[in-house]
């Protein structure tokens, strides 16, 4: 019975369905892999060498291989995508970006603020900001030359603070009313510019479609594809690094994932060590070099804040690039955008943190 449940849970997320019941299954692939390996280790204890037993054994092996194939790119066994910064050869502008979902109901606001102050980012992106969080963070945000915020009480408020110059800034709900994103142009001290997309789409839930999330990330990927300057996309995407939708996002946007070839970098749920997934992301174009990436302490949030030290260089460079987007990828992305644009639903989880 356990094997059958594992097979079903493995197969459903592979279906091209924009529905939470399929997309939620993408998340626990590390846990499913661990369960499959445990069943394989226990198999000799129940060996019968019948046709049925062999079929079960082969099914468990196939399940383990399915999960391992998706997780393997996020280990040192794979080739890096992002190039590491080499101070001897790379001439670029370095900066630190921190992105964090504060968890709107989190009452440890002073501790959270001190954690971010200690990290001392040049660019700060915060999600789930409401008015009370906005006020509590003023001692932090007043240190920044530029602050753009859209506090909301529905768990989708967003704030961007930057010491670097920003321009052409928009705060807009891309596809779902009540779910804002921040898009801006950042200028470094030497005059290099890049586009920054800070997004926080809806999470998938088993009882509703995932068109909002999938459509928003597809729309951002299509917009990024048309950008002529370097680009960073960051935020709590409510999706895992190895999902069908994230892999399509990388192909369509042509952005690099610094976790590939390095680590899984799980960021949610900070409260549950055995149930963690990589939901908080940063993708970048090939003009950026990775100096370092790390998690900060959650300080009451259910997400670990993520800190990325990057260098923006004039020449693009990548150790490996995403697969090129197929015509099917582009058509699927456009279809997801159209489907999301026609919805008339309140954002998922608007009352979760109240």
TrEMBL record:
Q: Does the keyword Nuclease apply?
A: yes
Identify the domain of life: Bacteria
- InterPro entries noted in UniProt: Endo/exonu/phosph_ase_sf (IPR036691), Endo/exonuclease/phosphatase (IPR005135)
Which Gene3D superfamilies does the UniProt entry name for this protein? Endonuclease/exonuclease/phosphatase
Task: List, for all copies, the residue spans of the domain called Endonuclease/exonuclease/phosphatase.
Answer: 100-303
Alphabetical UniProt keywords? Endonuclease, Hydrolase, Nuclease
Tell me what this protein is called.
Endonuclease/exonuclease/phosphatase family protein
Which Pfam family name is an example for this entry? Exo_endo_phos
- Molecular function terms from GO: endonuclease activity; exonuclease activity
Signal peptide as annotated in the record: none
Q: Does the keyword Hydrolase apply?
A: yes
Organism field = Nitratireductor mangrovi
């Amino acid at each position: 019975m356990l094997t059958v449940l594992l097979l079903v849970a493995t197969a459903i997320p592979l279906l091209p369905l924009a529905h939470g019941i399929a997309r939620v299954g993408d998340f626990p692939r590390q846990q499913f892999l661990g369960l499959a390996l445990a069943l394989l280790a226990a198999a000799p204890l129940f060996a019968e060498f019948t046709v049925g037993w062999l079929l079960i054994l082969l099914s468990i092996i196939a399940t383990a291989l399915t999960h391992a194939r998706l997780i393997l790119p996020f280990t040192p066994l794979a080739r890096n995508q992002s190039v590491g910064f080499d101070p001897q050869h790379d001439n670029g502008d370095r900066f630190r970006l921190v992105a964090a979902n504060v968890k709107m109901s989190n009452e440890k606001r002073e501790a959270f603020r001190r954690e971010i102050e200690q990290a001392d980012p040049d660019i700060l992106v915060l999600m789930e900001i409401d008015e009370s969080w906005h006020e509590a963070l003023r001692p932090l945000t007043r240190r920044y030359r530029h602050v753009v915020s859209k506090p909301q009480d529905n768990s989708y408020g967003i704030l961007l603070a930057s010491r670097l110059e920003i321009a052409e800034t928009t705060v807009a709900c891309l596809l779902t009313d009540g779910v804002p994103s921040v898009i801006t142009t950042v200028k470094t001290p030497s005059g290099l510019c890049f586009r920054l997309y800070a997004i926080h789409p809806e999470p998938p839930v088993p009882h509703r479609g995932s068109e909002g999330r999938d459509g928003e990330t597809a729309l951002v990927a299509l917009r990024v594809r048309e950008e002529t300057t370097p680009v960073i996309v960051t935020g709590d995407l409510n999706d895992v690094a190895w999902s069908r939708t994230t892999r399509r996002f990388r192909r369509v946007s042509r952005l690099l994932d610094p976790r590939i070839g390095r680590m899984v970098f799980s960021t949610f749920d900070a409260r549950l060590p055995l149930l963690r997934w990589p939901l908080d992301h940063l993708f970048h174009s090939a003009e950026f070099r990775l100096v370092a990436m790390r998690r900060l302490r959650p300080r009451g949030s259910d997400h670990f804040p993520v800190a990325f030290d990057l260098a923006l260089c004039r020449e693009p460079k990548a150790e490996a690039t995403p697969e090129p987007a197929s015509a099917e990828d582009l058509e699927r992305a456009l279809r997801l955008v159209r489907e999301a644009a026609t919805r008339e639903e309140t954002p998922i989880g608007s009352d979760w943190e109240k």
